[in-house]
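Technical note accompanying the year-one report. For the benefit of new consortium partners, we illustrate the data format agreed upon in the data management plan: each record pairs a sequence with a C-alpha cell string. No post-processing was applied to the example shown here.
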Amino acid sequence: MTDGAIRWRRFPWLIPLVQIALMAVGLAAIARGDELADDSGLFDRQLVWVVLSVPATLLAIVIPYRFWKTQAFWVFLITLGLLVIPYFMPARGGSHRWIPLGPVNFQPSEVAKLAYMMALSQYLMFRSNYRKLWGLVPPFVMTLVPMGLILKEPDLGTSMLFLPVLFAMLFAAGARWTHLLLIVFLGLGTLPVGWKFMSAEQKSRVTTLFSQTDGGPAPRGDGYHLHQSKQVLALGGVWGSAVTGPATDDEFLYHLPASRTDFIFCLVGERWGWWGCLGVFALYLLLFASGLAISTSTAEPFGRLLAVGIVTILATQLLINTGMTVGLTPITGLTLPLLSYGGSSMLMTSFSIGLLINIALRPGFEVTGETFRY
C-alpha cells in the first residue's frame, strides 16, 4: 500500500462532518435572526463565508503542517504587528478590532490566536525549554503581549482565551505541576493589571455579572443584553419555535442586540429548544474528542501540541460564549465557532480544523533531540 493510500486511510471523516453540521446550524440560526430582525442581509453574507471556508480548510490540509513549525515565530511576530494596525483605524462601536480591506473588515486577533499556538508549540517541543523555572518566562511573555494588545482594543472575550491555552499546552508538554501552579498564581496576579487596562464598558460588563436579577422589566445599560439573552433562550422551551411555534407575538421580547454574532446560541435555543442546545453541545464534544484523539496518536511533538491548543481554544470559546448567554461569564464580543456570523472567525476556525485533519494524516515523528514526555 502506498504512503498516500495509508495517509488517506487515516482521514478523520468525523471532523469535517461535524464542521458541516455546525455551519448548517449556524446558517439556520442566522436565518432565524434575520427573520426576527426583519433583515435578510447577514444570512447571504454568511453563506459566502461558509463557501470560502471550504478552500481555507483544504489549504490547511494540503500544506504539510511542519511547514508552520519552521515559520511559527515569524508568523507570530507579523501578527503582533497586525494587532497594532487597528489602533490607527477608525473605531467601530467604540472598538479598534478591524482592518478595513475594501468591502470586508479583517480582524487580526483571529489570526493572532492561531499564530500564538504555533509559536508556543514550537517553543515547547523540547524539554529543556520549560522543565526549569526560567523556561516559563518566554511562554508567559508570549502570552501576555497579544493578550494586552487585544484587551486594549478593547476585546475582553478574545483576550480571555490565551491563559487557558497556555496552561493546557504546558500540561500536554509535560511541565512540572509546581510550574503549572505557578502559572495559575501568575495569571491571578495579572488580574489587577488586566482590570487597569480594561475600558469602562468592559468593567461594567464584569460587574453586571454579579448584580444580575431574574424576572421583572428589562434593566437599562449592560444588564439589558443579559436579560434579553436569557429571555430569548427561555422562549424556546424544550422543543423550540420550529416545533411548537413562537411562544409569544410580542416582538419586543425577541429583541436581542448582536443575536446573530455574540448571542447566536440564544437563537439556537429559541428555534430548537433545549434539545437543540444539547445537540449543538454534542457536536462540539465530538469535534473536541476527535481533536484530542489526534493529539494522543501523533508522535511528532509540534503537531501534538498544536492539536491540543486548537481543541483548547475552541472549547474555551464554547464555554465563554454559551456561559455569557445565561449569566455565568461576562458578556464579551466572543463568537461561537462555526455558528456566529463573521468572516474572520469562520475562515480561521475552518483553517484550524484543517490543521487538525492535517496532523491526523501526518502523525510521524520527525524531530531530533529529546522531546517532551507525554
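Partners are asked to follow this layout when depositing records. DSSP finds 16 helices and two strands in the chain.
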